[in-house]
Amino acid sequence: MQERSKPALIVVAVAGILAMGLAGWWIGGMGVSKPQFAPAPDAAVTSAPTAPVASAPLKTYPTNVEGFIQNWLILDPIHLEGVGDHSETVEKPMFAKEYFKNQLTVIPEDETKITVAGKDLVWHKVNIDSAQIDLAQFCADHTTDPNSCLFFGFTCIVAEDDLKNVKLAIGSDDSSVWWLNGEEVIRSYSNRAVNPDDNKSKQITLNKGLNMLRFAVIQGDGPTGACARFYDTAGKPLTSIKVTTDTP
Which of 28, 43, 155, 248 is the most buried (most CB within 10 A)? Predict the structure, then answer.
């Protein structure tokens, strides 16, 4: 093959460059996207780190001066058949029955609904001014029958440090069972009015942070309610704790 001269090669190269430019102009005019190339590694764009979103602090309440808990979540009453004899034989199966899923572990929220036997029931925040939760008044406020029924109540106890060897003291009308952090600590079968400290638990521990306190009260007829407080190791009402009904 005959060797081309240098000027001829230059002319060919320039013609090639011009042809590529015209081709690119023609492709762009036809509306065809130009190929995109990933940037070199050292030109990679990185997004700024996202600042963590701080969760809102839980709203807490003190006990009253006598240590009584005054802030609760109460579920609309579950109506029962055969309440009358407040004996262990009659009421133990009523306390043992599962009325709704996770009833002893659920952390309820205000105005949330559950379904029991095809009926919608609602959790309500209840803030009281006295020692006793008046469950009959609760029923009147929410237009429901307070007789022959079972009430569930819930609150969270907030402790700044571990509090060992404290005791839970309760009163209830009528029979009741109380759980702290999932462990049963008090059970009473009785036809009675609400009297503070009718029952006391064994020595228990309130853990640093949140402690889940819940109760179930079986009511026959007439007045009904409950009250609760803790005692310290010196036998004095515990007033250093806080209470919350917000969702942890």
Answer: 155
For residue 148 the two structure tokens come to: 């022959």
CA distance 171 to 184: 16
Task: Please tell me the distance from the alpha carbon of residue 98 to that of residue 90, in angstroms, as a whole number.
Answer: 16
CB 146 within 8 A of CB 90: no
Report the residue count for the chain.
248
Place of tokens 């402790």: 159
Q: What angle do CA 13, 16, 22 make, to 5 degrees?
A: 145
Give the pLDDT band of residue 12 (cuts 50, 70, 90).
very low
Pair of tokens at residue 128: 């009281």
How far apart are alpha carbons 22 and 32 in whole angstroms? 14
Burial 35-70 (b: 16+ CB within 10 A, else e): eeeeeeeeeeeeeeeeeeeeeeeeeeeebbeebbbb
- Measure the CA–CA gap between 194 and 172, rounded to whole angstroms: 5
Instruction: Give the chain's domains with CATH numbers.
Output: 1-33 (no CATH), 61-244 (2.60.120)
pLDDT (tens digit per residue) in 198-241:
999 999 999 999 999 999 999 999 999 999 999 999 999 999 99
Burial grade of 83 (CB within 10 A; 0-12, 13-18, 19 or more):
buried
How many Å apart are CA 201 and CA 168, to the nearest integer? Answer: 5
Q: Which amino acid, one-letter code, is at 198? A: D
Could you read off the pLDDT of 155-179 as tens digits, one per residue?
999 999 999 999 999 999 999 999 9
13-22: list long-range contacts, CB under 8 Å, 24+ apart: none
pTM of structure: 0.78
